[in-house]
Amino acid sequence: MIEVLIAILGPLFFMPLMTAFMANSHGRSFWRWFGVGCALPYVSLFVIMFVVHRDKKQLAMTVPA
Hints:
With about 60 residues, this protein is mainly α. The chain has four helices and no strands. It has helices at about 1-10, 15-25, 30-40, 40-60. α2 packs parallel to α4. The N and C termini lie far apart (about 60 Å).
């Protein structure tokens, strides 16, 4: 029974986990982005990629070369 539960829930939590991992590795809240990933599974991954890209761009502009 537990194997069936894991087989069903595993793919459902894959995208939220990926989103939360990306957010956490860039200093964002893991659980907040996990919740966003559960609510908007595919959209959240693109949103976090945009946020990370924007943060890196702002950081590059503030650091003198």
